[in-house]
Design a protein that fits this description.
Helices cover 13% and strands 15% of the residues. Strands 2-1-5 form a 3-stranded antiparallel β-sheet. A two-stranded antiparallel sheet has the order 3-4. The protein is globular, with a radius of gyration of 12 Å. The structure holds zinc ion (2 copies). The site of one zinc ion has 6 residues, from loops.
Length: 82
């Protein structure tokens, strides 16, 4: 099951499970759209992953399959934005 992380790994912005501005790679690295499109230019150096829009999990499924609450942030911040 796709892990719906609660924040951008780059700038720590909150990303709700229903957000259409959440971007994700095949390893489930998760970013806000602003970071994915500008700072990272569609790629995350850690994994070289292609970032695509994260699909929304419908609210009635979230009750049974809740989003992750574990915040994951890159140590030292977003490399490209620095
Ligand atoms: Zn961000
Ligand atoms: Zn990744």
């Amino acid at each position: 099951m796709l892990q719906l992380r609660p924040n951008c790994e780059c700038c720590d912005a909150d990303l709700a499970p229903e957000s259409t501005d959440a971007m994700i790679c095949s390893f489930e690295c998760t970013f806000c759209r602003a970071c994915a499109e500008t700072a990272l230019a569609g790629r995350w150096p850690n994994c070289g992953g292609e970032l695509v829009r994260r699909p929304i999990r419908p609210a009635d499924r979230l009750a049974r399959f809740p989003a992750s609450t574990e915040r994951k942030v890159k140590a030292g911040g977003c490399p490209a934005a620095a």
